[in-house]
Amino acid sequence: MNRCSMPFDELEQLKEMIKHSPDQVFFATISGVIVDVFPGTDRTYHLDYQAMIGKHYQELYSPAFSEKIAATLEKVRQANSIQKLTYSITVADMQTICDLEHQDEVFWYEARIIPIVLSHSDEQYILWWTRDITKHVLMEKQIQHVMTYDELTEVYNRRTILSHLHTTYTTFLSKHGNAGIVMIDIDNFKQCNDSYGHLSGDQVLHHVAKLLANNIREGDVIGRVGGEEFVIIFPETSIAKAQILTERLRQLIMQSVCHLESCLEYKVTVSMGISAFLSTDNHENDALNRADAAMYQAKSHGKNQVTLCRQLSGN
């Protein structure tokens, strides 16, 4: 059992050590009444620690966060051993004791809840020993965001959209459903760059990406695969429905106006190729290559149009 049994004087020595720790530590009964609080030296906000002493956690924290505490204390009680917990808490969860105003601000903690038996008492106690890992969690999320999204357009990057394509293809193989795979290319993009500069080109990319991302269905995914090319995946969608959805997107872009930094109103159009998985496919890229070929066919036939790949159109 990873519990700590100590006489009273050793507890006092432990408290003295905790005082100099950067971590925040709560000394409480197993039922949840806070006996003492050690604020620690590494904290990003201030709690009214004196107001916490003698109070039950349910008096101090929100009902939702109190449920987390209750579940953890029950695990400690049943296992009679140290429990580890990683959790988030918002300012709203501790608004009665916290001095911050932003209710939705989130902090992350790593905690060890240590059961303690005192030789002079029949009461069971715990040390709720917490370490603030907010900076670490936020850094991990930032790294994950960079790895997942295209920095310029804020849609999925090539690696992520191709991962979704693989997942969709795996679903097709197991369930025999289908999906619409759409390749999109911005018309005359090189001309825009050459005439108005790369900053204007970036604005056009962002404009198109935002329009597409805001007008696909929940569950559909979009990513930039390079240059001025995007891919949309319509999961569990017939080819007929995919054509309707794609044509709607083309018209939305055609009817929109991109306001360049030079105050110029730039009209954007796109060429779009549609494909789907076939039973003869050996790889998810087979469908993507067909969509790419259909997109180039749309461009060669005048641009600003949607073309279905020849394997599905019968042409």
Automatic annotation (TrEMBL):
<dbReference type="Pfam" id="PF00990">
    <property type="entry name" value="GGDEF"/>
</dbReference>
<dbReference type="InterPro" id="IPR035965">
    <property type="entry name" value="PAS-like_dom_sf"/>
</dbReference>
<dbReference type="GO" id="GO:0043709">
    <property type="term" value="P:cell adhesion involved in single-species biofilm formation"/>
</dbReference>
<dbReference type="InterPro" id="IPR000014">
    <property type="entry name" value="PAS"/>
</dbReference>
<dbReference type="InterPro" id="IPR000160">
    <property type="entry name" value="GGDEF_dom"/>
</dbReference>
<protein>
    <recommendedName>
        <fullName>diguanylate cyclase</fullName>
        <ecNumber>2.7.7.65</ecNumber>
    </recommendedName>
</protein>
<dbReference type="InterPro" id="IPR050469">
    <property type="entry name" value="Diguanylate_Cyclase"/>
</dbReference>
<feature type="domain" description="GGDEF">
    <location>
        <begin position="177"/>
        <end position="311"/>
    </location>
</feature>
<dbReference type="GO" id="GO:0005886">
    <property type="term" value="C:plasma membrane"/>
</dbReference>
<dbReference type="GO" id="GO:1902201">
    <property type="term" value="P:negative regulation of bacterial-type flagellum-dependent cell motility"/>
</dbReference>
<dbReference type="InterPro" id="IPR043128">
    <property type="entry name" value="Rev_trsase/Diguanyl_cyclase"/>
</dbReference>
<dbReference type="InterPro" id="IPR029787">
    <property type="entry name" value="Nucleotide_cyclase"/>
</dbReference>
<dbReference type="GO" id="GO:0052621">
    <property type="term" value="F:diguanylate cyclase activity"/>
</dbReference>
